[in-house]
C-alpha cells in the first residue's frame, strides 16, 4: 500500500482526528471504546483501500499521558503504519505535547509516517503523485509571530494569512492541495468536550482564508457537523468516540476523501460505539419500570434527566441498579449534576462555602430555594458543628 | 558506518550508561553539563570509529521526564543514529518508564537503533558478523516469574539463572557473546546517587552467573570502578556526569570495547566536565582568603566541609560570593546539609517539629547540643510566636 514513490495515483485517504487517547468520560474508563473505534477505523481503511490516513491532531488527551495511554497509541500507530502499511499524515493538536509527541518522528518518515509538530515543518509538503499535503500542527499566535518575526501578528485570524501565503509559494499547480490542521474555524459549532474556546473573530480562523485548498482536513471540534459550509472544502472529521453528554446526538465516524474527483469529494463512514452515550428524560418511576425502556442497552452511558420534582432518597444508587453507567443526573429545568468522581470538581466543591453548597443542592432537589427560616436553621447547625470540631 | 549487514567485521563499540537526562544536582540544572558530556561521547565515538554505541539503561532520570528532557534525549539519539549513523544498542533502566521509552522503537531498527524495554526482547540477539548482542532491559523478579511462569523465582539471583540459560540456547558458538544489562552485580560498590539499593545476595546478580559472556556492558552504578573483578568480563561504564557529592572522586568516561581481541578487551576514555563536582574541607577564613585556593575553578559544584566549630552568621551567603555553586555545606564530624532547594526535603522539613529542627540545626552549627535553659527559651519564644499568629 506504500506507493508514494512508485508513481501510481494517490487518490483516496481517510480523515480522522481527536482520538484523545487516555480520555475518560466523567470518570468512566474509555480504553475499550477507543480501542474498538480504532479497530473500526482500521477496518474502514482496509475496506476502502485508502492510500493514507490523516490524523488531524489531539492524538492524546493530555500533554503528559499515562503509561497505559502511551502503550495504547503506540500500538495503534504501529498497527496502521508498520503492520497494515498505511501511510500516516498526522499533526499535533492543542491537547498533545508537541515535544513529547515528536518522539521517534524523525525515524517514521522511512515508512511514510509523517508527524508534524512544529510550524516550520508545515511548509514542506508531503509530495504525493497528484497531491501536496501540508501538515500544519496546532499553533498559538505567538509562535507564528516568532516564526515570521512579525510583532503585528496577535491573533489567529492574522496568523493564518502568512502561513497560507508561504504554503502557496510551494504550490505545484499541477497538483491538488490538501491542508491538515487543528484549529477553530469561524462559524463552527462547539460542544462541551473541546477545551474552552474563544468563539468569534480573534480566536478563530476565517474559513475565507482556506479557499486556496482543495480540501482542509480539520481537527479540534468533535462533531462532523461543526462546519457544514459549502463555501470552502473544509470539514471536521469529529472524534471517533463521544467524549461528553453534549456529543450524545452526534454520529461519529470518518471521512473518506477522494482527491481524484473534480472538485475533491468526501463521504462519511460511521463508527458504531460499544456503549453509546445518550440522554434519557423520564420520571424516576418510569425509569425503573421493567415494562419501560426495554429497547435500551442498559450498559450505555446515560445522562439522566428526571422529570420528578419531589426529593427522592438514594436516587442514584437506585437508578444504577438498572443503568450502571450513569454519567450525569439532573432534574428537568434544573442543572446537570456530574455523578461520577472527578478530582477537580471534588476539590472545587470542598472549597465552596458550605451554605452555598447546601442552598444549591436543596434547590436542585426540591426545585425551590431555601426559605429564610431554613437558611437560619442550617446556618445555626453549621456554626455548632464547627465549634464542636474545634 | 552502518555495516552490520555488509559482512565486514564489527569489532569495536562504545559502552556508556546512566545518562539520567533531566537530572538535577541538588537543585542545580545539569542540562549544559549533560549536553557537553554527550558531545564528548559523540566525539570519542567518531575518533575511535566505533561500530556501535551501547547505552546500558537509565537514559532518563525519571519515568515521566519533563518536556525539556524529552527534547534533549530525542536530539541526542537522532544525532548519533540518524546524523552520525552509529548503530545504537540500548535498554531501559530502572529510572526509565519502559513503556514511554519504547515510543517509536519499532521504527528504529531500520537504522540499526535497537532499544529493548521488555524481557521477551532479550532472547533475540542482535546478530553482528562476529558477535551476538543480548540486550536485557532492567527487570523486577516478578516479571521474570511471569515470563517463565515459575513461582519459585522470587529474587534477582534466582531470576538471572533462566534468563542466561535461555540466552545460551540462542548462542552461536562461532561468535562472541555480549550482554547489555542494568542491575546491581554482587560485589559492586555503590554511591549515593543511585536509587536506594538492596546490597547483598537477594537484590543482586551474582557475577558468577555472567561467566558465559565475553563482555557484560552494565548500567546502574555510577562509578566505572564499581565492579573491578577480573573473574568476569563485566564492567560498569558509570554515568557521564557526576550526579552526587559521593561521586566527587570518580573519573567519568566511557569504555571502548574491542571484541576482536582474545579475550575481549576494553579501554577507558575519560570525559571532562565543564563544572566539576568536588569536596572542599577548610576553615571559613581560608575559604574566603584570596590567597588561598586560587587554583580552583570557582564555578565548580562544591560540597564544602567547614572545619570551624563556632557559629558563623550568614555563612552560606558569604561563601557563595566566592563559590556560587555550593551544593552541600557541613561541618567536619557533623552531617552534610543540602543547601539548594529540594522540593521533598523542604516539605519534609516543614513537617518536622520546630523544636527538633532548631535542636538539629544548633547542634550542627555549634557542635554541641542545646542546654536545658536554651531549650526553655526557644520553646517559650515559639509558643509566643504561635499565639501571635492566631
The biggest beta sheet of chain A reads:
6 strands, mixed
What's the oligomerization state? homodimer
Largest interface: A-B, 21 and 21 residues
Low-confidence sequence ranges of chain A: 1-7, 195-201, 340-346
- The percent range for helix content of chain A is 25-40%
Number of folding domains of chain A?
2
Q: Structural class of the secondary elements of chain A? A: alpha/beta
H/E element order of chain A: EEEHEHEHHEEEHHEEEEEEHEHEEHHH
CATH fold title of the largest domain in chain A: Purple Acid Phosphatase, chain A, domain 2
Please report which band the strand proportion of chain A falls in: under 5%, 5-15%, 15-25%, 25-35%, 35-45% or over 45%: 15-25%
Distance between the termini of chain A: 72 Å
Q: What is the tally of helical segments of chain A?
A: 11
Question: What is the alpha-carbon Rg of chain A in Å?
Answer: 24 Å
Domain Calcineurin-like phosphoesterase (chains A, B): 12-222
Domain Nuclease SbcCD subunit D C-terminal (chains A, B): 275-365
InterPro entries (chains A, B): Calcineurin-like_PHP, DNA_Repair-Maintenance_Comp, Metallo-depent_PP-like, Mre11_N, SbcD, SbcD_C
Protein name (chains A, B): Nuclease SbcCD subunit D
Amino acid at each position: 500500500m506504500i506507493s508514494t514513490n512508485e508513481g501510481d495515483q494517490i487518490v483516496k485517504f481517510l480523515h480522522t482526528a481527536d482520538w484523545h487517547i487516555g480520555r475518560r468520560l466523567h470518570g468512566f474508563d474509555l480504553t475499550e471504546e477507543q480501542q474498538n473505534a480504532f479497530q473500526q477505523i482500521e477496518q474502514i481503511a482496509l475496506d476502502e483501500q485508502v492510500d493514507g490516513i490523516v490524523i488531524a491532531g489531539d492524538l492524546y488527551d493530555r500533554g503528559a499521558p499515562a503509561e497505559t495511554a502511551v502503550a495504547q497509541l503506540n500500538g495503534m500507530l504501529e498497527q496502521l503504519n508498520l503492520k497494515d502499511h498505511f501511510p500516516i499524515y498526522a499533526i499535533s493538536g492543542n491537547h498533545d505535547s508537541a515535544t513529547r509527541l515528536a518522539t521517534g518522528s524523525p525515524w517514521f518518515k522511512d515508512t511514510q509516517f509523517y508527524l508534524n509538530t512544529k510550524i516550520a515543518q508545515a511548509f514542506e509538503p508531503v509530495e504525493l503523485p497528484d497531491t501536496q499535503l501540508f501538515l500544519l500542527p496546532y499553533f498559538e499566535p505567538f509562535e507564528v509571530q516568532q516564526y515570521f518575526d512579525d510583532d503585528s501578528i496577535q491573533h489567529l485570524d492574522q496568523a493564518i494569512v502568512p502561513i497560507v501565503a508561504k504554503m502557496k509559494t510551494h504550490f505545484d499547480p499541477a497538483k491538488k492541495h490538501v491542508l491538515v490542521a487543528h484549529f477553530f474555524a469561524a462559524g463552527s459549532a462547539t460542544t462541551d468536550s473541546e477545551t474552552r474556546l474563544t468563539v468569534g473573530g480573534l480566536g478563530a480562523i476565517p474559513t475565507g482564508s482556506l479557499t486556496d485548498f482543495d480540501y482542509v482536513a480539520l481537527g479540534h471540534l468533535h462533531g462532523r457537523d461543526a462546519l457544514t459550509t459549502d463555501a470552502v472544502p473544509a470539514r471536521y472529521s469529529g472524534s471517533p468516540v463521544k467524549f461528553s453528554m453534549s456529543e450524545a446526538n452526534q454520529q461519529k465516524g470518518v471521512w473518506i476523501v477522494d482527491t481524484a474527483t473534480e472538485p475533491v469529494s468526501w463521504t462519511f463512514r460511521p463508527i458504531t460505539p460499544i456503549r453509546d452515550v445518550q440522554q434519557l428524560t423520564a420520571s424516576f418511576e418510569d425509569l425503573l419500570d421493567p415494562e419501560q425502556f426495554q429497547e435500551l442497552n442498559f450498559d450505555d452511558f446515560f445522562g439522566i434527566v428526571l422529570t420528578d420534582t419531589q426529593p427522592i432518597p438514594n436516587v442514584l444508587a437506585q437508578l444504577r441498579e438498572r443503568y450502571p453507567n450513569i454519567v450525569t443526573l439532573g432534574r428537568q429545568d434544573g442543572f446537570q449534576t456530574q455523578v461520577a468522581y472527578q478530582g477537580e470538581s471534588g476539590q472545587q466543591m470542598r472549597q465552596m462555602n458550605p451554605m452555598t453548597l447546601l442552598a444549591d443542592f436543596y434547590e436542585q432537589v426540591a426545585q425551590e430555594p431555601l426559605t429564610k427560616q431554613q437558611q437560619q436553621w442550617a446556618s445555626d447547625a453549621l456554626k455548632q458543628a464547627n465549634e464542636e470540631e474545634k
